[in-house]
Description:
- The structure holds 2 protein chains of 2 kinds.
- Chain A is an alpha+beta fold.
- Chain A has helices at 3-36, 67-99, 105-119, 123-136, 170-194, 203-223, 248-275, 278-286, 291-321, 325-328, 333-345, 348-377, and strands at 145-147, 150-153, 156-159, 161-163, 229-231, 234-236, 239-241, 244-246.
- Chain A folds into 3 domains: 3-37; 41-132 and 247-382, Orthogonal Bundle (MetI-like fold); 163-224.
- Helix content of chain A is 67%, strand content 7%.
- In chain A, the strands form 3 sheets. A 4-stranded antiparallel β-sheet of chain A has the order 1-2-3-8. A two-stranded antiparallel ribbon of chain A has the order 4-5.
- Chain A is globular.
- Chain A starts with a helix and ends in a 5-residue tail after the last helix.
- The model of chain A has no long low-confidence stretch (mean pLDDT 85).
- Chain B is mainly α.
- Chain B has a domain at 84-99 and 159-377: MetI-like (MetI-like fold), CATH 1.10.3720.10.
- The longest helix of chain B has 38 residues, at 340-377.
- Chain B is flat, with a radius of gyration of 27 Å.
- The two termini of chain B are 44 Å apart.
- Classes of the chains: A alpha+beta, B mainly alpha.
Amino acid sequence: MPRPTRALALQTLLALALAALAYGAFANASDKLARQGIVAGFGFLGRAAGFDISQRLIPYAAATSTYLDAFCVGLLNTLLVSGLAIVLASAIGFVVGIARLSPNWLARTLAATYVEALRNLPLLLQLLVWYVAVRVALPEARDPAAWGGAYLSQRGLVLPRPEFLGAAWLVPLAFATGLLGAFAWGRHVTRRVAAGGEPGPVLLPGLALGLGLPALASAGLALAGRPVAFAWPVPGPYGPEGGLPVLPEFAALLLGLSTYTAAFIAEIVRAGLASVARGQGEAAAALGLSRARTLRLVTIPQAMRVIVPPLTSQYLNITKNSSLAVLIGYPDLVHVVMGTVLNQTNQAVEVVGLTMAVYLTLSLGLAALMNAYNRRVAPVTR
Amino acid sequence: MSVVRETLLPPAPPPRRTGGALGWLRQNLFSGPGNTLTTLAILAALALLLPPVVRFLVTDAVWSGASGEACRPEVAGRPVGACWAFIGAKINYLVYGSYPAAERWRPNLFFALVAASAAWMLWLDAPRRGLGALFVFLAGPVLSYGLLSGSSVLGLVPVATSLWGGMLVTLVVSLVGIVAALPLGILLALGRRSDLPILRYACIGFIEFWRGVPLITVLFMANVMLPLFLPGDITVDRLVRPLVGIALFASAYMAEVVRGGLQAIPEGQGRAALALGLTRAQAMRLIVLPQALKVVVPGIVNTLIGLFKDTTLVSIVGIADFIRVLEAARADPRWSAPTIPATAYAFAALFYLAFCFSMARYAGFVERRLAAGERGRS
């Protein structure tokens, strides 16, 4: 048989086999579901959920909310813990990765120990350690440890909650304006240097804008006699009451995810820094730049090209690994939808499909975003 | 620019001694004020943190006792660290789960078999490695299944999989994962590089799907959907469901590792083979694939480490793996004492660290060996 004909025959056969497999699975599943009396389709999402969720970012009540609301609550909880863990893991990872190349032997060894220990232990075990062993060592809820208005106990952390009443919304607005201003200033300086102008300070004006504006706004409000109110937690007979409670499940998951992934990020950062030619750092030192400025202005910008692609997959891993929440009972997407909703409705195909679709969308979306960034920072080859 | 100096610097003093212990200290720990400060800060932190850890693990630990009483500070009359007596009392449960005591020689034989085949595969200069691979991927799994689950034909008492547990199940899950994932991953990688569009897109879709979803959702899916998709009243063993999920999940990651290896082999290798008159299949099997697989040994071992850590997730879907057995042992009221959780987790950490760290070391060794080979060739 000539090659093109054979290729065509092979592919037709493959397509037929895949279609047959899919049809067989579909027929079996719909047959069994019909026998169990389950109506296929996403109609169940509109029914009342009737179960409570311990942490919610949007209004949700067991009696009135639907399964769709529960799905949204779970999704937001997943996004919250993943987003915070991404920030925290990047911070720890960069510090440890840079420490692994430190001239100080102790810092180097300590960073290497951190990486080897955290990387070679299952995340699930680390979550158990944070959630069970560390929590046992904390004071009981009746007698919490207090730091300046915040309380820490076995039932989690309780923070003072800022109340955005009256004109207090000016403070977050000032913060957002400050951030935008700092970003614009950074771009302006970069452009000026690129055009042959004088370099100027970026970090200090940026910090001043980002932190100074909200501070100014809250000081102004206080002077006007309408300061930003805080709902302070007060110790009660069964534990601190009021304020902004942080669930122990959330704290354990956030800490476990961040410290675990930071070990991988540290290795990525180390490899990235090591990939920058030695002469770059030596030339910067010869020009009189300090080690910190060499890192910040010469080495790290060049290393970022190597760091970004694997860093992306670590961020995706954080999002996917946050599903281990189901182990310790943090109400993330998997816990709420694949746990409770699945048990209550038995709509296995729809529930599994929906959950997987969310993760696939997040994965592919973030991958596309990072690829776009990657194209921008990719080295220009001439 | 202002960084250019305009005046001459005074001559620097001669460099200080760099040899000897003192020189090493000066270079690595006290080379400047910032460095000295870092050293002192780290030393202070270590002095604060290390003694409690050593006290917990060794000095204050309880090494023998018949029940949790021995590990209670008010009974022992001193501060109590790790309760190693608990691990000692539970060790058989932690290794075999509920496997019948009279039949424990079978898991032991299985462990020996695994150790021998692992040594055969990991020792790169071992004789007849092809035969070893044939054993590991074909005869080994069948033999192990017969040995562990038993059957009246073999003259072995049948042991239901629901009785298996502990390190035995952790090992079984990881091995099934790797033994299924490697061949499947190679096929997927070849399919992804094929020039038949339908085959290629089917493989890409398969690989990206499993890589895009968390393993825990895969395990849930295997648990609830696998029985739905199968015809009639076929029931799937509780242990087999997560195994199918893990095998498919791991094969997608393995495929990407193998693809990296295939891409690293220069195209000239395959073309030269074709020019010598080999068919495309022969060229792949005899020329390209052996070289590609040699390059990806570190990658395969790293995937294996990830797989070994990921097997802990089967405990969430109700399989009695090492972690689940450990949690069950921890809940035993006879052994309730304040330090039991920390003891259990310290033991689990040592177990996983021992396996994963040695595998990581092995991967590093192969990588260095490969790099040395590359240098020698050019």
